[in-house]
Design goal:
alpha/beta, 27% helix, homodimer, 34 strands, seven-stranded mixed β-sheet
Chain lengths: 712, 712
């Protein structure tokens, strides 16, 4: 239960109605004394790198830095002036003019991707612009420069979203030994000043994730898992000493793409990430040790300054984290918490925040919360978490009585599931899934956002991209899932995988991009499938154009994408197969796309759904194995069922009976071997009934109200 | 007027009703004697390379050859059997088993694009398959082999479309001296046997264009201007002697894309084309000389065996061709004939043929003919041709009286236009347009078909791709148009061009593909525009991905396309500009596309139309010049007007008054300086009225019935 200054009564009421077992002081608010007396666990929030605003303001030399770059501009004559912050918000970034040296900044001729020689450009502080001298007319130039992050992203977001007007918050970079020493002195005092605190909620560690804002405070670039804002001169020097080479400005700005997580990571960027991770591990371990020494437990929130935490590595265990806390709006987000390794407890922070953006006149927090919960609960049945919580101002929530009633129901449902499952995973069917992409485990359950996200317009009548993709379907299915990096299969697909999934737009980390150019990886998948494995491709699977194909594994998939080079090759004609075991489900699916530009590679391909000649869903037999292609797979109950059936078919198990399964795709069923109990939930907003098949072949009928659940 | 055996009466009736001045004997039918007596010009059709079927059947060694290739197939073990004609029609192609040698055939490892060494594959005649030995499991293999074209494409098409059952026709390759000698002996006899013939209609010269058929007689690959079926061992040897290198099988099969005209041509393929052209010039000159010696005129039909004719070069003039005949279904096809160089007469063969595919119970030749004519006439007003004609069986046409009445109207309209224009071009406004692509003039007015064509389903409720693109809009505009090859602008855009158009899907010859990688070409366009030139991009203009852009000239266009690599770079937000001089027209246009995935590169870009965040039309100022982008521009009267206004705006002339222009885009107006007369036509199927502005500023009102025209 979050609390607020002077709002003890509101929190108290909600604690009783919802059955809360812990309270926390919001970042920036203190805990009312009447709540302390309840004897509940007390979470106190601290983000050490932005805790002492006064000290931070006095030390701009320690503010975090990053490399920024300008949009390439054409030279019409021999000189060209490039303003550095033309698009970026001038209050967020301060140009490090003292570092405008040829070794730290770079001016690039983007036409040939070559750096402009030293002496051929100068920085003009009066205009905050770089002047290129002796430019080649008709060429494009951009500047990569160092800037200080002068406004913490979360603080800026809150100013914009919640109308905050107080002094903007800044962070410091603990990589400087002076900062490190000061912060831990401050932290020890802070711990001493919080005697009632039982759990220190770190939000989070050293470096903030990346959101760049333009002059109108709109996003320019977003990377929730990006290592862009971790730059200091000392770090650059130490990196060089450790890795034997120096990172260039271009290594950071990456032709303006900033090494986004959605892009295929370069070897040099992976080095930088592991360099930062090592430091964050040291910093996090120091934080936890001091928390433990003070007799408290350490929780870490997956957000804000969480870069380098890497919950899917063993770093959090090494740090000594006692509790993972992740915000969750859907099943993918649940799995992002529940599937992390380690023995620490796991907690979800549910949406919406009790903030005025939603809790306002005309706002509808109830619908948002219900929609989120239906997706989260599906996934929760598969893999458990321990706790749930909310954030914001309880007094705002109390103005929405129906919402407060609903949350009481939600809490009851959560406790019922905890009780039925014993906090253990549900039984999986014997289909083991590997999600193959450029990252593998470290980016498990990160949404494979694609081009649609870039062109997405926030409109209430349009399904959000988050929570609406193949991963969301997968999050609630009774199969084991792990994420595999492409480099891991260079010598063969692991033997504990039955079906590989490659789901992502072309030229992204999610489909794998040019990593498919490593023929060992492509051949490994071919051998795996030819010997009986399954392969499911969605959107731009294995896309990496060769001279005769767009999908590198077009032969495995049985389909290829027309990028323009083969327009005069006429595809084989096809009719929709109505007899295939996936035909009925594919026929009733909505793939959310019309023009896929995907065609059958040969007449052996089975087309299951199409829009005209554009294939939307197909299946292929390849040696002893099988593959399925989806042009896209937005989340819905029936699409989830199609994905499950596709996994089963690709694994060659379609003739086996699947127990603990309802014939109605809107009803999700889980059986927990440790407790011997089962639970059925209605994942839709309508009344649903169906028949569940038990392992002995007997059946059980259920009828569930909208969103309802039933235990047995 | 076409004729048919025993159908003299039908032809006679139509000759009178339509006012025909010439008759022709259809290919394969003789001319009825009652028609000879009319004293009209007599066209006799001959395709010399397929004229003597008996001799051809006796000489399979002289049938034309081509390289074919198989779909790459995966090896699961160390041997792999690849059937050669798995998809291709076995009656059309006969494998040249006698040429299954390592120097003439090639087996490729498509995984690494390397030839399989000699001795590692064998051809098995019993299975008509190649066996790869010592294959690498997980790799893909294809076979490139020589085959004889055992069934002439036109003959096969007629068998399929018109239900012909007689012996299938074959051609011979006149490149063999024995064939050359035999054919010209035959031709001299034929000329002597046709004393009444005044015009020899060649259909056409030596080599047929390319259509491959599958087992079900469906197209596999089409290339109306392709040089695939011109292969003989002698030609390969002679090529090597002339060019100093030998072409490989891969040079022909081109990774299965067969050097399609829509692809960016390689230097080696251009060499092959010029080699064939030289021979066809020699062959065509010999034909024309003998025609002239016999006291007749030589006409050549742009179709069938027309490869190597190249009407947009001076080869037809060098051959001595007296009359160009081209089939035409739209304005682009009209310009394909009218714009050819040389002083020969020009004739259109209009659709539909009087064949049973359209002239059947329930067929609607009237609608097809009317629709074609409305488009053709728009273009005809700009650039004249001399004659029009039809093909097929007059007796079939007579069964459709409304059609026959309509054609009489059409013929009257044509004669009126001839009379009003004096057979001269209409006045252009002072905007000179260059259409920039990989080919330039030799492929002038060839439709820049793209991906839509590949996925096009023939349905009556869908606009055909042909006649529905930017070129069709351009074909009827009062601007001078020439086609420019990208290599021609390496040192600068010609000074007689005001606006360049680059219209085509990405990775095609029409947008230019990787030719944009030549920075001199990109810089030439930048300089041209920066100094005041105009640039119009449509579909995938200048597409050739670099590290930071998809459109090589994204800076000129002001927009870029998201291919997946920049999904986390958030585009600048925009609103539709309602004040721009193109705003009204862009707002009422239908771009025929929804998801363009094109975004504004900076906030300086003017967005004129969008679907959500997907840009459909935009404008940009670049230095002293201007550019306009269209996501697509299907033909319509209003889209044509938008294109005209865009050309005028891009040329910086939007403030000038355009004379001889109606305020209603459905009314096209032409003024002919040589006659001092004008004509206004209604290019729509509705009644239209409008006001025409004359050069002195006065106005003239017109009101025209559907498809009507009015002279002054």
């Amino acid at each position: 239960m979050p609390t607020e200054k002077g709002g003890g009564a509101s929190a108290l009421e909600l604690i009783r109605r919802w059955g809360a077992d812990a309270v926390r002081d919001c970042d920036g608010t203190a805990l009312p004394s009447e709540l302390l007396e309840l004897g509940l666990d007390v979470y106190s929030t601290i983000c050490l790198v932005r805790a002492d605003e006064e000290w931070t303001r006095a030390h701009p030399e320690y503010w975090p830095m990053k490399y920024l770059s300008t949009t390439p501009a054409p030279a019409f004559g021999e000189t060209l002036e490039i303003p550095l912050l033309e698009r970026l918000h001038p209050l967020k970034y301060e140009i490090r003019e003292d570092l405008a040296t040829p070794s730290l900044w770079q001016v690039m001729d983007r036409t040939g991707e070559l750096p402009v020689p030293h002496g051929k450009w100068v920085y003009d502080p009066a205009k905050k612009a770089v002047r290129v001298l002796g430019a080649c007319p008709g060429h494009l130039y951009s500047v990569s420069f160092l800037a200080t992050v002068a406004w913490d992203t979360t603080s800026m977001y809150n100013h914009l979203t919640n109308g905050w007007t107080r002094e903007r918050v800044r962070s410091v970079d603990p990589y400087y030994p002076e900062v490190w020493n000061y912060l831990f002195e401050y932290f020890d005092n802070w711990l001493a000043d919080h005697p009632q605190t039982t759990i220190v909620r770190l939000t989070s560690l050293a470096y903030h994730f990346n959101v760049d804002f333009d002059h109108d405070c709109r996003d320019v670039f977003r990377d929730w898992t990006g290592y862009q804002e971790c730059v200091s001169l000392k770090a650059l020097d130490d990196f060089e000493a450790q890795f034997g080479y120096r990172l260039t400005p271009e290594d950071f700005v990456d032709a303006g793409r900033n090494n986004a997580t959605g892009g295929v990571p370069s070897a040099r960027w992976r080095d930088w990430m592991s360099f930062v991770q090592r430091f964050v591990l040291r910093f996090g371990r120091e934080l936890c040790q001091r928390v433990h020494r003070a007799g408290k437990r350490a929780a870490v929130f997956h957000g804000d300054h969480w870069v380098g935490l890497e919950p899917f590595t063993d770093n959090p265990t090494k740090m000594g984290i006692d509790l993972h806390i992740g915000a969750a709006e859907d099943g993918v987000a649940l799995r992002r918490v529940s599937d992390t390794p380690g023995t620490m407890a796991k907690e979800l922070r549910l949406y919406p925040y009790f903030f005025p953006d939603v809790f306002r006149e005309g706002g509808d927090p109830l619908t948002e919360s219900r929609g989120d919960w239906l997706k989260i609960r599906r996934a929760l049945l598969r893999r458990p978490i321990d706790r749930i919580g909310w954030g914001g101002y309880p007094s705002l929530a109390l103005k929405f009585p129906a919402f407060c009633d609903w949350v009481a129901t939600l809490c009851d449902q959560f406790r019922e599931i905890l009780d039925t499952s014993g906090g253990t995973p549900a039984l999986d069917i014997p289909v083991r899934v590997g999600v193959l992409n450029a990252w593998g485990t470290p980016r498990a359950w990160i949404n494979s956002f694609g081009r649609d996200q870039k062109f997405f317009e926030k409109r209430t009548d349009v399904v959000e991209v988050a929570g609406s993709n193949l991963l969301e379907c997968l999050a609630g299915l009774p199969v084991s899932v792990r994420f595999i990096a492409m480099e891991e299969i260079r010598d063969g697909v692991p033997s504990d995988i039955d079906v590989l999934i490659n789901d992502g737009d072309a030229f992204t980390a999610w489909s794998g991009g040019d990593l498919w150019g490593d023929e060992r990886i492509a051949s490994a998948v071919r051998s795996f499938v030819a010997k009986g494995g399954g392969f499911i491709g969605c959107r731009g699977p294995t896309a990496d154009p060769t001279s005769d194909r767009f999908f590198r594994l077009a032969d495995v998939l049985g389909v290829d994408y027309e990028d323009g080079r083969g327009i005069q090759n006429v595809p084989v004609s096809f009719s929709i197969d109505r007899t295939h075991s996936l035909a009925a489900s594919a026929n009733s699916a909505n793939f959310g796309i019309v023009e896929s530009f995907v065609f059958p590679r040969t007449s052996a391909t089975t087309v299951l759904a199409s829009a005209g000649k554009h294939i939307l869903c197909s299946a292929n037999v390849y040696g002893e194995g099988r593959s399925v292609y989806f042009a896209s797979l937005p989340y819905s109950c029936s699409n989830s069922r199609l994905l499950l059936q596709s996994l089963v078919w690709a694994a060659g198990r379609e003739s086996e009976r699947i127990p603990w399964m309802a014939d109605n795709p809107a009803i999700d069923v889980a059986f927990f071997p440790t407790t011997g109990r089962m639970i059925a939930v209605n994942s839709s907003n309508d009344t649903q009934s169906g028949t569940i098949t038990l392992p002995d072949g007997t059946e059980r009928n259920v009828s569930l109200p909208p969103g309802g659940q039933e235990m047995a």
